[in-house]
Specification:
The protein has about 400 residues and is an all-alpha fold. It has 17 helices and no strands. This is H+/Cl-antiporter ClcA.
Length: about 400
């Protein structure tokens, strides 16, 4: 690339990445405010959970009859990143936004990253036709959308950029994607937090032990547990989805059945701990001992919610699963409770999405760079022990087990 081509590249992506960051950051801000309202309204009116099956039918019906390929969710973005086939429809943005809000409003167990990433990717891909982008530049702008959506919904711009690059990584890394990904991530985070005034949950790991061989050795069994938990989480979701597809042929009826089961579980247990995002329980996992089975309950209820056809992300439930599993492991592993919760927070996420670098960066952004060695070690071990699994069925895992 000569000087003229480089100048054209910088000028093009300075404008496009900034625009994508502004769009995805604004979309995330609107989404987060709406999600907070839905969560608070549900907690004040728990009778709404009884209508979860009806909400499920509405979501399933709209997606089945009007969603087209939007039903593939994050997997559609991966498919288009690997090989461009069809434009990502603009309808994906309102569909996933309202589908996720209704899922949370009526008591489903789901996350938020999938929604932000899909909105970011959908909005970004609209610029392909507006600016007549070629196939390579289209791929870059989708990466920008993913980076902006992820960064702004969690307040982690560094992790958002790395996630967008690592998530879609193939055997050939393209250096041209680095600048647009990082710029869109940081712009999206600034727009969401500074322009719109939407904040994010704060976490803390107050005690970091010395980096001794003994302390680091204890990360190994913890990381293995996080990797196996990630595998269980991914396979639970895929398995429940397959069961519903085999047993119920008409897609809108699947979330109806799932909604009935979730509502019954909440009714008979008398607990709303495992529905919604579960952020209060995640925060508690850094502070006080919790029931050992919290991570299992969240895995099952999230698998049932998303596997039956409700909308939302997987990452916040993965945070819940990992943080509470780390909390439970503090009874056997002599490391600080908050550190184990933080290691689980990012470790299970790493194993379930095959993105150890992004998860390590996220952990340092959220918990402080002092914990980076422990977090990174846990993420790598969890990634290695998660097996050939991913919460995203379209993710290319060839690189993970490539033969030398």
């Amino acid at each position: 690339m000569n000087g003229k081509e480089f100048t054209r590249y910088v000028a093009l992506w300075l404008g496009l990445a900034t625009l994508v960051g502004a769009l995805s950051g604004s979309a995330s801000a609107i989404f987060l405010v709406s999600l907070d309202w839905a969560t608070n309204f549900r907690e004040a009116n728990l009778w709404l959970i009884a209508f979860l099956p009806l909400a499920g039918f509405g979501i399933g019906y709209v997606y089945h009859h009007y969603g087209a390929n939007s039903t593939k969710g994050n997997n559609l973005l991966l498919d288009e990143l690997y090989q461009s086939k069809n434009p990502i429809p603009l309808r994906m943005t309102p569909l996933v936004l309202f589908g996720t809000i209704f899922t949370h409003l009526f008591g489903g167990s789901a996350g938020r990253e999938g929604t932000a990433v899909q909105m970011g990717g959908s909005l970004a891909d609209q610029l392909t036709k507006w600016f007549s982008l070629n196939q390579e530049n289209r791929r870059l702008i989708i990466i920008c959308g993913v980076a902006g959506g992820f960064a702004s919904v969690f307040g982690t711009p560094l992790a958002g950029a790395i996630f967008s690059l690592e998530w879609m990584l193939t055997r050939k890394f393209r250096w041209k994607s680095i600048f647009p990904a990082f710029l869109s991530a940081f712009v999206a985070d600034w727009i969401c937090e500074l322009a719109w005034g939407v904040g994010h949950t704060q976490y803390s790991i107050p005690e970091i032990p010395i980096h001794s061989l003994a302390n680091l050795a204890w990360v190994i069994p913890a990381g293995i547990a996080f990797g196996l938990s990630a595998r269980l989480f991914a396979e639970t979701g895929h398995g429940i989805s397959a069961i519903f597809k085999n047993m119920i042929s008409y897609p809108p009826f699947r979330p109806v059945a799932g909604g009935i089961l979730v509502a019954l579980i909440v009714f008979f247990t008398g607990s709303t701990t495992y529905i919604g995002l579960g952020v209060p329980q995640i925060v508690e996992a850094f502070e006080v001992p919790l029931p050992w089975y919290d991570w299992l309950a969240k895995t099952g209820l999230t698998g049932l919610t998303l596997g039956s056809g409700f909308k939302g992300g997987e990452v916040t439930p993965l945070f819940f699963t990992g943080a509470t599993l780390g909390n439970a492991l503090s009874a056997w592993i002599p490391l600080p409770l908050a550190l184990l919760a933080g290691m689980g927070f990012v470790g299970v996420f790493s194993g379930a999405t095959n993105t150890p670098m992004a998860c390590t960066a996220m952990g340092m952004e959220l918990f402080g760079y002092e914990s980076g060695i422990f977090l990174g070690f846990a993420c790598v071990i969890a990634y290695l022990f998660s097996g050939k699994s991913s919460v995203y069925s379209s993710q290319n895992l060839a690189e993970k087990y490539r033969k030398s």
